[in-house]
Each structure stands twice: as C-alpha cells, then as structure tokens.
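Training component of the fellowship. As part of building independent skills, the fellow (R.M.) carried out the full modelling exercise for a liganded target. The chosen ligand was N-oxalylglycine. The inputs are recorded below so that the supervisory panel can assess the work.
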Amino acid sequence: MAIQTQELHPGFAAEASFLDLSRPLSAAVIAEIDTTFDAYPVLVFRDQRLSDVQLRDFAARFGPLEIGRSAARPGRRRLAIPQIGDISNLDEDNNVRSLTDRRRLDSLGNRLWHTDASYMPVPVVLGLLHAVTLPPPSPFGNGETEFADMRAAYDALPAATRDVIDPLTAEHDVFWSRAQIGFTEFPPGEREQYPPSRQRLVRRHPGSGRKSLYLSAHASHITGWPVADGRLLLLDLNSHATQPRFVYSHTWRVGDLVVWDNRWTMHRGRPHDEDKPRDLRRATTLDQGSTLNEAA
Ligand code: OGA
Ligand code: MN
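Fellow's submitted model of the complex:
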C-alpha cells in the first residue's frame, strides 16, 4: 500500500498520506490511487509544488486530458499549456481582473453547484486542482471549494422519487448556467461551438454498483418534460443534494492538490476578496463516451 487515507467526510472525502506527485510514479501506485477514488471521490494531497508540466503529466496518467472552453479561445493566455485550466482571477499579465472583466464574470459560474463540462457530449471524469496562490481570509469569504456527495444524496431520496428519476435525462447547457448569474456576453461563435448535451440524470458507479445523481448548474430542464416542471424537479434535487450533511468544504493551503471525480460529485467555489490574487491550476481527464450509453 503506497497510500494511506485519513477520512475528512465519511465515505466521501479523504486526505492521502504524503506522496511526492512531482516524481514519476509506478503504474501500481497510479492504479492504487485510481482505486482509492472508488471509496473517496474527493481526495486531498497536501504539500505538493507542481509545475504546470508536472500537473499535466500526473493527470495524464489517469486518462486523456480536456482542453477547456477558456483555453480553446483564440488569443493570448496566461498559461502556456492548453491542458492546464486557469482557475484564477488573473489576466494575461498576472494582474487581478477588474470586477467587470468578462472572463471573470464568466468564471463566476463556478460559484454555482456544478459538475464540470456536463454540457459536453462526452463529459469529464477527474478534476485535479492545485493551489498556487491564495487570497488571505477576508470578510467577503475565504475562497473555499465545496464538494457534495451525489451517491449519498441519491441513496437518501425516497424510493418513489428514485423510481421516477432513474430513467430520466436532462439537457445541460453552459449558457444556461451563466444565464442564471446574468452573464450572456460570450465571444462570437461560442454558442455554436458548445450546443447543449443530453445526460442521464442517474448514473451507476462501476466500482461500487451504487447509483449517483448527475446534477449540475448546466442542467436546464428534463428531456421531454415541460421546461418549468423539469426546472422545478432539478431545483428540488439540487437543494436535496447540497444539504450540509452531504458536503465537504475544502479550506485551501498553498500546495494542495484536490482531485475529485466529477461523475459522483458536485462542487462550487466560495467567495473571497476579489482584490487579491487567487491562482489555482486545473487538469481534467475526459470520459470515454456519452452517459446515455452507460448501463442504467
Ligand atoms: C473548478 C471549480 C471552484 C473554485 O476548478 O472546476 O469549479 O473554488 N473551481 O475555484
Ligand atoms: Mn468546476
């Protein structure tokens, strides 16, 4: 056993014993980490100092990497590697973005409970988020990231609700999650580039056989239902699934690498002092196929 874990939230989040992730790891260690995600879909590694190259290379051991919506845009970028997502409030010259900066406003969608990239036809699996620079605690908030356990949330639903939702699919649309916070000013062509995608509402976790809710701020309505009914169902499921008993809140330290499995979790960022730099870097692994083709 290369890794031991210390539970942070029962059956959901754990801290892994120290392992230097900047070094090349054996296939056996990678396989062990991968298995640990079955028990703990949120796993915290402390005291790492990974360059973007090292973060990319570690992440790539778990699957092909995503190039996110922001990195896919033309023009200058702060970070050189397209597979490293810029989860920061900094512009191309490392200055804190102004409150009205469009990229900042777009990225505020991360403050809504979501699972990453569920608006893509083939969504993502692991998010690996590494803290480089953090804002100090402030009256505005401390910039924690919260994670909610979608397997436990599914299990806690009444049986009659589970029967209704098991076969349903939802439409996921990144422009819907942004519309909820009043942001609509996308670069030309982006709406055409990211059309909505349909996803199963309930997925089965292959490692444990447990079912899990697949919810996200991107989910706009239920396929085949009147929009209002679907939206109301999604609102109910979201408030159920994000009750404090299902949530682990991560207080960041510089050097943390938090890895979560997007298939069985939702997450959201919390407010912080917008005048201070907050610089996190994210690599993300891609899934193999559409959720619609998964076994129910
Ligand atoms: C993400 C995300 C929230 C945060 O990186 O996918 O949603 O706290 N981050 O920065
Ligand atoms: Mn996210």
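The panel noted the following from the submitted structure. The longest helix spans residues 227-241. The chain has a mean pLDDT of 96.
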